[in-house]
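Action item from last meeting closed. Structure (77 res):
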């Protein structure tokens, strides 16, 4: 089932499927990802105004997804 996420102008959304970073949505955009009922997913909202705080687990996922090498305007996965 496709799943749509929409973020605000001041946040970044990271979404993970099965514990692996599947993609992101840059500020004031939306993204779609495929969600399977039996596979857990999570969405992390990162507030860019109040503080850019990311857990160590998410930082590890970003590094594994080669975050800095990808185009920020496109979804990974």
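Sequence:
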């Amino acid at each position: 089932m496709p799943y749509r996420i929409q973020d605000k102008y001041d946040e970044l959304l990271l979404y993970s499927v099965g514990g692996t970073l599947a993609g992101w949505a840059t500020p004031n955009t939306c993204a779609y990802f495929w969600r399977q009922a039996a596979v857990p997913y999570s969405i992390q909202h990162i507030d860019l105004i109040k503080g850019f705080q990311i857990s160590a687990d998410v930082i590890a996922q970003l590094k594994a997804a080669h975050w800095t090498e990808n185009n920020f305007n496109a979804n990974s996965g």
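Note appended to the action item: The chain has a mean pLDDT of 76.
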